[in-house]
Amino acid sequence: MLLKKNIPWTYILGKIKWEITAVALYAIAFGLWHEDLNLHHITIPLSIPAIIGTIISLLLAFRSNQAYDRWWEARIIWGAIVNDSRTLIRQLQAFINDPEFSVDVSRITENFTKRQMFWNYSLGQMLRGQDPLKNADQYLSREDLKFVRNHMHVPNALLMLHNRDLKYMLEEGLLNPFQQVEIDRTITRLCDAMGKCERIKNTVFPTTYSLYINFALYLFIVLLPFGLTEHLGSILVLLVILISASFLLVEKMAIHLQDPFENKATDTPMTTLARNIEKDLREMIRDYEYVKANANQTKVVKDNFYML
Amino acid sequence: MLLKKNIPWTYILGKIKWEITAVALYAIAFGLWHEDLNLHHITIPLSIPAIIGTIISLLLAFRSNQAYDRWWEARIIWGAIVNDSRTLIRQLQAFINDPEFSVDVSRITENFTKRQMFWNYSLGQMLRGQDPLKNADQYLSREDLKFVRNHMHVPNALLMLHNRDLKYMLEEGLLNPFQQVEIDRTITRLCDAMGKCERIKNTVFPTTYSLYINFALYLFIVLLPFGLTEHLGSILVLLVILISASFLLVEKMAIHLQDPFENKATDTPMTTLARNIEKDLREMIRDYEYVKANANQTKVVKDNFYML
Amino acid sequence: MLLKKNIPWTYILGKIKWEITAVALYAIAFGLWHEDLNLHHITIPLSIPAIIGTIISLLLAFRSNQAYDRWWEARIIWGAIVNDSRTLIRQLQAFINDPEFSVDVSRITENFTKRQMFWNYSLGQMLRGQDPLKNADQYLSREDLKFVRNHMHVPNALLMLHNRDLKYMLEEGLLNPFQQVEIDRTITRLCDAMGKCERIKNTVFPTTYSLYINFALYLFIVLLPFGLTEHLGSILVLLVILISASFLLVEKMAIHLQDPFENKATDTPMTTLARNIEKDLREMIRDYEYVKANANQTKVVKDNFYML
Amino acid sequence: MLLKKNIPWTYILGKIKWEITAVALYAIAFGLWHEDLNLHHITIPLSIPAIIGTIISLLLAFRSNQAYDRWWEARIIWGAIVNDSRTLIRQLQAFINDPEFSVDVSRITENFTKRQMFWNYSLGQMLRGQDPLKNADQYLSREDLKFVRNHMHVPNALLMLHNRDLKYMLEEGLLNPFQQVEIDRTITRLCDAMGKCERIKNTVFPTTYSLYINFALYLFIVLLPFGLTEHLGSILVLLVILISASFLLVEKMAIHLQDPFENKATDTPMTTLARNIEKDLREMIRDYEYVKANANQTKVVKDNFYML
Amino acid sequence: MLLKKNIPWTYILGKIKWEITAVALYAIAFGLWHEDLNLHHITIPLSIPAIIGTIISLLLAFRSNQAYDRWWEARIIWGAIVNDSRTLIRQLQAFINDPEFSVDVSRITENFTKRQMFWNYSLGQMLRGQDPLKNADQYLSREDLKFVRNHMHVPNALLMLHNRDLKYMLEEGLLNPFQQVEIDRTITRLCDAMGKCERIKNTVFPTTYSLYINFALYLFIVLLPFGLTEHLGSILVLLVILISASFLLVEKMAIHLQDPFENKATDTPMTTLARNIEKDLREMIRDYEYVKANANQTKVVKDNFYML
């Protein structure tokens, strides 16, 4: 749903265009001048590039796995945020003791729910390094907004406000002590999810691995033509480019997957997920009109936005 | 139990028939015309396809593992749904305080249990993109059905109804506060399982990996005949086809495993699992007749339906 | 403790005797007639079988890992059953409020403990497709036995009886509400373990993988002699058999590990584990005589029964 | 901290001395007599040992990973035991309601803490197949010791005594019902850790894998000299020994890691860990003298004892 | 955020300078004297180093994965510490029953929060083998400091003080019993995180693996020139150095990752994390001035300090 199926080849090749250009220039230069430079006498048996190819494969397999794990963990965390947002509101509605359907309680519930909707947007913005208070006035009460503006860590401040409401509900007898503790646990899970996102965001994948891969890869590319001098003529250039491209593409893929919260076209679709959560929560507080009005909107978004 | 043991070869080869046809045509064309086109002089040492083969193996190993993990995770989630459905009803029966075996309580329990049975069917339908309200009238009370029709996310609405019943039971003194919270936790686990299924469903496996595998694979296939010109004559065609098929089959397998909730013959057997849950739950509310009447039915289904 | 250390070679070779016979016949036939059939002119460079060998290795590594994971998960689940059985009885004894050491309470505790002992045997029998009520009369009260006979899913019915007892204890004031909920959690974990076993039992490992492995493997075996014609004479036959055996044995191993609940000599030692749980639980309810009388018995069993 | 950094080479080579001797004898015999035995005419291309080398690598990678996982899981379990021992005593002190600092309560707490210290030693002894009651009189009260002597499963009996004390504390009003249940959960985690150790101890790693590795390994060793006859003379012997040693050492490593509770110099340092837990717990009950007196002792132990 | 993107090549090569020097000397010596020493006649086919290269790849892949897992687990643990620190203070504020905003309660909360801030610094110091009481007087009350000085395990003593405060709050009616138990659970998770760090710190990665890798690696390096004598002249030296460097760098990387708590430039950024936690917690107790004053400080630190 979140990815375009047909990725143009130009997009993919675009990712490695500088590397491929450099490889091509080297291969062409080798083809043109290796006789003049007396490189002709140097033949390296193909076993040598093959051994280096084995090392590169090992490094790329390792890299791909770790990068995929980061990407997949980011998705798992946001999946948990979806679940816990639903659970939070479901618990609130199921626990709150309001036999008279008072206006006051209904207002509290709505404020709480909207705050949770906003929490998701705000977390997404913060992780992408953008303004975490964007559109805050559409979701937060004036009082809450004033509190939050004092905080650098907006999503954390929102969770504090959740807890403030729970405390009020306990004092007013709207929740019993077990229910307060149980809803607090859901908030704790949201707090954990928030911290996990920050961990992935703030832990750079060991950069030395990239360097080692590049070191081994360019060693491989430099040696490859020396192993092919006897056999091929001008086709050598094409072969070197294509084989290099195979390796380079795998590395680029890993680089894209490993940072799932950078503000790129390929990251975790946090805005879409936050929008879906908003729809689910609005449905739960019976704001059916909003949901129906926005049913098509997502469809449009998904066709243009994400690409991996 | 859920898979036919004897899969016809035609079925398997059917999956890669277009690819194999293309490979065969290329190999035949190469065999017929490579002398005329002066390709005869171009010999590529077999080490080159071997190096590319190593890259492909790395990519396919990665792909197979991730695809299998998605497939297996889908099974784990549905296994958890089975367990939590049983636990939910077991807890309801064990906790409910009804010394007089009143008709009212018995009706509530039955409604609750049937709603849980339906939840499983409904979740399966939703994940396959089909009508989540199919057969809803057989399981839900008129009142519940009316509520659910207003919702786009049917399974989530059903969980809300579960909680509404719990709230009623607490108010009526049928449950004590700890028991309400404890049953709510089981519902939260069901909510988590639901969200996990949606995550797998909505997260497409990075499509660029498929492209890179295909890129490396067809590069391998194109180069392979050039490495065999000296040694073989007409057997070259057969060899190229068979080796290509080995690689292509592994990739197809991964593609089938990676989307466990698409409406294909090979996906997670959600309908069968929902039917088994229904049998277990009916047995728990002592509807023994239903269980015995349906004991054989599953047997029939399993022989025709799933194939992997 | 559960495996014989010295497995006879004949046992191992017995597992692949048909495959090896077929390979041997093919290799001998090739050796005898390849000159007559003019196959002599066809030489395949050994790089080709080597490339296929790489594919096979990839598939076998994947297969071995997944099969081992299933086998090990089965052991983890049964380990959890051991732990939760002990915890269940420990909690029961620690929580029950019986200052007068009444006969009635002592009878309930004993019944409860024996039912848990039987639950383990019954689950093992059910998973192996055997009678889950075998020896039930030695462990269950007449009343319980009557209830269970109405159920197709015996272990689940036993858990329901556990909960029925807890309900009774709560009503009688033998447990307080927290204690009831806490013991129910232990029962929920047992319910989860039961469902996990059923998941492994009922999810066949994707059979297409076996087919692909066999496809690649026999392709490898068929091509191997063509790569050796120049170098060897009659030793070719021996080499082909030994190398094929290396691959075939790894696959057989995976097949044996992947179904840990089939009724084979090599599956999870559920009966032994259930017997050990019985000893631990009897010790906990101070039936020391039983434990001492049965201390040696297990020793005997372990020497004859399990072999992997 | 727990391992000597400098392991003498003789220690390592000692592990494979018999295998290496056999390989050396074979290689020498081959070098001396292969001409006399007309083995000279048999040359096996090096691709054949290379293919077998790939199989062996696959098997050894699988083996190493699984063995390491067992070893690491054993450390994780004992790490959890350290944590839960501290938590148990911290909870006891924080929960117990004793405003008058009575002598009776102080005695109970001390007994409880000492019992937990002993539990760790006892579990370690049991897992190594040694006397689980060694030094019991230094830690257990006379009454407890009498109870425990009746039990074959000593650590489990100690947990029962923990629960007996909790029951007493609840009855005396020293703990409230939530606190009893909460401490019981910590005991349940200790019970789980105990069962996990027993699972690793009692589940032999599938022995057939060792056999298959040895089968492939000796096939490789036997074939290797036939691939080297042309190229080398007497250096062949050295090469065969060194390459064989590379493979054999990896397998030995796996064998040592896979059984982390056997009574070997290289197993999990359970005694040291139990001693560290004792120090932490004594510090928690303000037995500062003990801790300071024993601070250096561990240092001495660690230099001599563990080696991996 | 925590790593410099541009690592100078000199830094990386510095890590393997002794190994590379030794390799270079060997290669040069081989190049100069192999004719004089009659090593000229000894040619080893390149398949032999290639087989050893496969073993090394297997060992390095295993090593890299395990080392990365340790490094990543360390980050996960510290991520959990961040989350649980926030949760602890959020719970304290949300649970504490103080309608009159008394000075006494406010002082307790502040002391508690500062103690938690210090706990993080103290744990980091302890893991690095440095003074765990550094700057203690800035965070702890005089009374607390006196208590802690008696303890060798400072972070554990701090958790005991947390629990002492909870006990006081329960006695004073500031917390209800559920809330006490719930906050204790958060403290238990902190205790677990602390123990997990100690486990990683105290469990040395099996040193024999390093030895085996070095054994295989130097065997590979020694044999490599014998496989290249025919083909290359003086370029042999360069090739041997570059290929050796590829392998050696991967191993060095693993060595750096495997010990995430040693006091090196590349370890887990515990001080930075503790500082971030301090900012979050101060914001939670409305010490906004501190946060704003220190906003830039971290920025400066991050540019100079961590490098991987």
UniProtKB/TrEMBL annotation, chains A, B, C, D, E:
Keywords: Cell membrane, Ion transport, Membrane, Transmembrane, Transmembrane helix, Transport. It is a multi-pass membrane protein. The keyword Transmembrane applies. It is found in: Cell membrane. It holds the Pfam family Bestrophin_2. The keyword Membrane applies. The chain crosses the membrane at residues 12-33, 39-62, 209-226, 232-250. Belongs to the anion channel-forming bestrophin (TC 1.A.46) family. This is Bestrophin family protein. It comes from Ohtaekwangia kribbensis.
